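ok so I'm stuck.
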Amino acid sequence: MADMNAAKKFIYIAPSPPVELIDSTSFTIDFAGRKFLYVGLDPVQHHAIIILIITLARHILITTEFLQSIYHMIGDLLSYLLDAPTYKRKIFLCTDTTTLSSMVFKDENVLILESKTQDGCRIILNHRNLMRLINLEQSIH
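replied:
not stuck anymore, here's the structure
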């Protein structure tokens, strides 16, 4: 019986710490939920502009192009999030490094931003978080 219980345990894999950005600016997505967005220069990737979304336990690094793609389909994303919960996973956007998909969390549709290159690097965005990103669009660009 002990072997069955041991097999069912999930192991939390903490993501590697986020990169230190040069000349970064921070924005609050959800203070109570501890979600923050940083825009800055990545010293590792030839000073490319990158976006880092950080939560209390996780983070994800996305490109400005990926964020632009999210802004281009913001209407569709909001419509999906405000619909009745759909338990089938839907992939909205997929690149070599990042995937934007959906799932149901706490009885509501949410978006999952997940890294393909780093284990454990993913965050959840609900419709309130997405609305905040819309409000921040002009400040970020």
